[in-house]
Fold each of these.
Amino acid sequence: MNQPGEKATDKPDTIVLSAKSSRFAASLFNYGNIIAVLLPPVGMLWLAMSMVVYALNRHHPNEKVGEYTQQAAYRIYGVTGLIVAAAIFIPKDSVNYYLAIWAVSVLIIVPWSIVDLWRIRKDDWQELEIEKTTQEINND
């Protein structure tokens, strides 16, 4: 049985991964980054979920998906590290400093993610024919 984004081919031991599916996988991390910085309570959840998304997409059969995912991960994890390092020096009773760090995070993540989403949209995505594993063949 084929997964979403896959279709059967003439060859029984291969599946075709659609271009649309690859493009969505490449975009997913950037969408998560934008939502995480615009809605700070979601940010902590996204840091946990992003590790799963990264693990799934970094080794995607289409190498471009992995490259776009890696660049998006560098951005969010770098900004998160900046926030942690800066938070050490912020007075405990000052909300303004935290708001300033949040604003800087938004200014870094959102424009770069939008540019990356634009690049993903303009990139030439092709269907990818991949061979099924022995386990997938036995399950059919």
Amino acid sequence: MMTQFAPLCTGSTNMSHTNDSSIATNTLLAVFEQGGYPNFAPLYQAEGFRVSQVTSVRKAMSRLKKAPPRVIVAEFNYQSDFRDRMSSLESLLAAAQHHPGIRVIAFYERETRPQLDRLLQQFELFETLAYPIEEESLRAALRRAVAAG
């Protein structure tokens, strides 16, 4: 299923920041690797975020280095053929650890919950949402992420 991406929102360059001075409070990085769910960019924008969308963790890591977002929304895609990790999300989480103010929300398939639980023993996720993603659950998670400062 191909999903069209909303254009990158540019917004103002004068942004408020969290305690980690490199993180802009109103930015969200959406990592859309495999998809299979709606494009939530309009919802992110309605919640006041400037949205960047990328289609790979490699591109997300590049964005993370250049301009750390306040929130990252990514997919946990369990990959049994990986030798040294369970999913590419691990690489992104390892990089995000250098910015403690980033809140990561991950989407996952219910049947991969045991593998996700193993990942959670190593890395912290702000919130996890199982497919199918309900807009109200996602909206509530985003609001909790903002409220968490």
